[in-house]
Specification:
Structural class: mainly beta
Distance between the termini: 43 Å
Number of domains: 1
Low-confidence stretches: 1-18
Mean pLDDT: 76
Oligomer: single chain
Strand order of the largest sheet: 1-2-7-8
Length: 150
Amino acid sequence: MTAQVAAAAVIALSVFQGRSFRPQVSPFPIEGGGAAFLIKMTNTTAGPLNVAPVGNCRMRVDGGARESTLVWQGGMSSVAQGGSWQELVKLVPWPHAQGGRRPANPYPDRVTVLTYREVHADLGSGDHTIAFTCGGDWSEDLRFQWKPSH
């Protein structure tokens, strides 16, 4: 079993190794507490790219890495050269298990995404920055206001 997990980790890492693409990140307007971000990726490589259905992007908040590399052992979606996919990440003030919670996309009428997840953020009120990497380069830091609901 340990060998299978190690092999899956190697496969997950090799899917993106040596790729130089940068996600485009924009705020996604929501009501209530938290903040959400739409991550758009375009396959700029010379061939198809395998993308895990649980998402490939990890984030850093205020300059510090927050999440480890995701390891997926199931099937992958193939994104053709020039194709794109989107992920939606919502920061929430309530705790979740490591890796976040992955409910159904609550905004299907507003955006179609490969994956939606909620990630616990223990942040003070005010200005913060967030950036994402999806296996290539980090996105530009995006400033956002954090106003947790009580």
